[in-house]
Input
Amino acid sequence: MHDLVIRNGKVIDGTGGAAFMGDIAIEGGLIVAVGKVAGAGRREIDAAGLIVTPGWVDIHTHYDGQVTWDPYLSPSSWHGVTTAVMGNCGVGFAPVKRDRHDWLIELMEGVEDIPGSALAEGISWDWETFPEYLDSLDAQPRVLDVATQVPHSAVRAYVMGDRGARNEDATPEDIAAMSAIVAEGMAAGALGFSTSRTVVHTTKDGQVMPGTTAAAEELLAIGRAMAAYGPSVFEMSSDMNPAEAEFDWMKAMAMDTGVTVTYSLLQSPMNPKNWQKLLTMTAQARAQGASIAAQIACRPTGLVLGWQSTIHPFIARQSYRDIADLPFEARLAKLKDPAVRAAILADKSRPMGPLGMIMTQGFDRMFRLEQPDGHLDYEPRVEDSIAALAATSGAAPDAIVYDMLMEKDGRGYIYLPLLNYAEFNFDHIHAMMHDPNTVLSLSDGGAHCGVICDASFPTYMLTHWTRDRARGPTLPLEKVVSMQTRDTARLYGLNDRGVLAVGMKADLNVIDYEGLAIEAPEMVFDLPAQGRRMIQKARGYVATIVSGVVTYENGEATGAMPGRLVRGAQGVTAAIAAE
Output
């Protein structure tokens, strides 16, 4: 008698191999049979007409605060994620001295747009060191597995205080102390270390975050400290500027220590072909023996602009500012007033800098997100932009935007792709996905609460990239499943999951593929202190299973909490070794 048997499903096992019809038997949290299962299960799921996949392994999330109070880690768990890796981009909440709590909260709020009030109320702060933070996570029940990395900004502030926060050069003594903290974190179970080297990541007061300009000596010393604890990952967000200098220390670290270096790769509107150069440099580095991988996204880094979002096209107009602080329903009543509408449309935005101008007046890059049939169009045509609609209709572009935002009783949204959409199509993403040195990532689950919800990436990969894309080639379902299971798991040394094979961890999704869909974004206020966040729900997940336990059925949580903290890289099973 097995604990659980899933029967008659179309099994897509995560290896990239062809799908097949079969059963899966689970005992003690592990897969014990794949194919034809004769024995009965204490519970059985009939997967006829459904697909069965490994659970999604999302390696780029920012649940570092939310994980301390939310056992569900939504929205990610709603989208079939069974393992989430946190601590990316150099931000996190350990190690920390008591007088730095507020500083770390403000840093996370500035870099990742997570409400500071929610973090302040929700985080218990029952730790100081990184190992103590892991112990705190380990003691809490949750529906999915979590793992994390040591964040550079917290380490720098812990060792160097204000000098570290101001990005002053580290002394040899500082570097030694930081390396010791990273080693301590690795020994306790961190999967790696993360940093940020992009000017896009700024604090609330507009300064680049700690570690952005750290010298190669500091980074290499940290890499050497990590190397003593086996396979690990050095993750970073970087402008890669100048790329040659960045690749010099990245190669040196990877080759000297065996650490895998991974960086975020998105198409820049300022240099739309530069991603090709970076992937060429990545291939060259790997040919020389350096383990370097680029983390890519499955759609643009795009803002969802609405009246409740962090930003929208009227945010800098004084006539809007006059009502901006009203509760939403009172503000909405004003926005419905024709006189208020006329005043806002007649007003001019105050200067906001180049990026602010794009976000408030870049009508050539703004699009309707939710189509009349309910479809969410993340790959819109240039002729569907607000500017194009204005040109053909004769209406003012800001008037079109205003009226779109007023749809759904003031809960309409405009989509503004900022990165990864320089040429108004996904052709470059398709090419990136076929590069052997890329890995699917960058969902930013839990972050950018007021303007983005890319935690829906795993579902979007199946719906858009294998089924619905109309503007270019799609991808085989088997490849897409492998990209967000085996491939993501292996990058971080999580070799016990991501493949449906005997001996592997029993993390699975049972999916109604034809009925799979992402719902429209909505703003909710369910974080601590009634903090705001944008969410997206999914339809079509018949069951999500973690360690052999059903955690979600038809989109509803079962109440089971089999998730755990993953400490360190997980061993290669016989099933994987035989591939």
